[in-house]
Amino acid sequence: MRRIRVHKLGRVEYADGLELMRRAAEQVRARDPDADWLFLLEHPPVLTLGRGADGANVVASRDWLESRGFEVHETDRGGDVTYHGPGQLVAYPVVDLSSRPDVRRFVSSLEEAMIRACADQGIVAGRHPEHRGAWVETRKIGAVGVHLSRWISTHGLAFNVEADLSHFQAIVPCGISDPSLGVTTLRAEVGRAGRPAPSISEVEERLAVHLCDTLEREREDASFDLRTISVTATRADGRVLLLRRSEERGGFWQQVTGRIEPSEKPEEAAVRELREETGASGPVRPLGYVHGFALGSGLAARAGGGLRTGQETAYSAVLPDDFEPRLSEEHREWGWFTPEEALELVPWAGLRQAIRMASHLLPGELRGSFPAVQLPGE
């Protein structure tokens, strides 16, 4: 039986999720290691448009989306318009189907995993005669959208555990306009039955069990290869401190970042890295933001090569207006930038989100930070 590496990633920015799938597909295609991948995660609020999606199925205005921090992404998966957000479990099985190249069977296996996860809570779910996904009577509780390239899958399913149902008002979910059909969550269905709702971590584990079973894979749990921190330093005027790494370390701009040593707490690492990379001494403030991502090629190579994952905890710090960093050997340049300028320079989605949070701004309030996707009426 082929192995599948199960990785519970927590929050993942949507762009980082696409990169995770891309790198995993490369690994599966190369059969190095000879295993598939299953990523379980939650995204921040995002609308995704599948191949051939009808833009009219995004019914919310750009202003409404921006005011609530929604991103919009075009993707290569099948299906129409889908919402992802907190409280919704997303599963990305990146698997080699070449030994049994049956698309319908694969999609059915994803639906079956969600149906079984509902049954774990005493909720009877099933399939709709006309529409894909998992359904509780006329209410859709889980969506499926996949992409296959040379019989290697990406994307997967979205299971509504405790998602904010009001967010679905932004779209015609999956392009289904029938007013007799709706959307639901596992929490809502369990509540109707008069029982307490399970935790999202409990549902995540059961979904992992069922996916390994329906995909006929032997489970192998994976963990983060590296735990890091970021510190977004700002001045009283709102400008953000960025450091440019040396060419041998990538040559890109970013905030203070660094690994958490085995004996350290994340906050201790943040204080230490801020001092080592800039010479600044002082307190840091947690942003309440922890996210998973794929390590860049340089870090991945140092960790043994292949697909490697990291988990980063974000902090902020306020530095004096006249502060000038003393750079370590890792960096060759520094500068104070407006939040808009910083977002243009920083290449990583998670670090951009930390800038937004440290600047107390939603994505749409920063010029150039909202993806350029054509919306209805534009």
Task: Note down, in words, how this protein is organized.
This protein has 378 residues and is an alpha/beta fold. The chain folds into two domains: 219 residues, BirA Bifunctional Protein, domain 2, CATH 3.30.930; 140 residues, Nucleoside Triphosphate Pyrophosphohydrolase, CATH 3.90.79.10. It has nine helices and 18 strands. The strands form four sheets. Strands 1, 2, 6, 7, 8, 9, 10 and 11 form an eight-stranded mixed sheet that branches. The longest helix has 17 residues. It is globular and about 65 Å long.
Blueprint (SSEs and pairs):
Blueprint: E1 3-11, H1 14-30, E2 35-42, E3 46-49, H2 62-67, E4 71-74, E5 81-84, E6 88-94, H3 103-119, E7 134-136, E8 139-149, E9 152-160, E10 182-183, H4 186-192, H5 200-214, E11 218-221, E12 226-234, E13 240-245, E14 253-254, E15 256-259, H6 266-278, E16 285-294, H7 297-302, E17 309-318, E18 331-337, H8 339-345, H9 349-358
Parallel strand pairs: 1-2, 1-11, 3-4, 8-10, 12-17
Antiparallel strand pairs: 2-6, 3-5, 6-9, 7-8, 8-9, 12-15, 13-14, 13-18, 16-17
SSE sequence, one letter per element: EHEEHEEEHEEEEHHEEEEEHEHEEHH
Mind telling me the C-alpha Rg? 22 Å
> On the 0-100 scale, what is the average pLDDT?
93
Shape descriptor reads globular
Taking pLDDT < 50 over at least 5 consecutive residues as the criterion, the unreliable ranges are 362-378
| Helical content (DSSP H or I, runs of 4+) | 25-40%
The CATH topology of the largest domain is what?
Answer: BirA Bifunctional Protein, domain 2
The CATH homologous superfamily of the largest domain corresponds to: Bira Bifunctional Protein, Domain 2
Q: What structural category characterises the helix and strand content?
A: alpha/beta
N-to-C span? 51 Å
The CATH architecture designation of the largest domain is 2-Layer Sandwich
Give the tally of structural domains: 2
Tally of contiguous helical segments: 9
Largest sheet, if any? 8 strands, mixed
| CATH C-level label of the largest domain | Alpha Beta
Give the beta-strand count.
18
Strand content: 25-35%
Oligomer: single chain
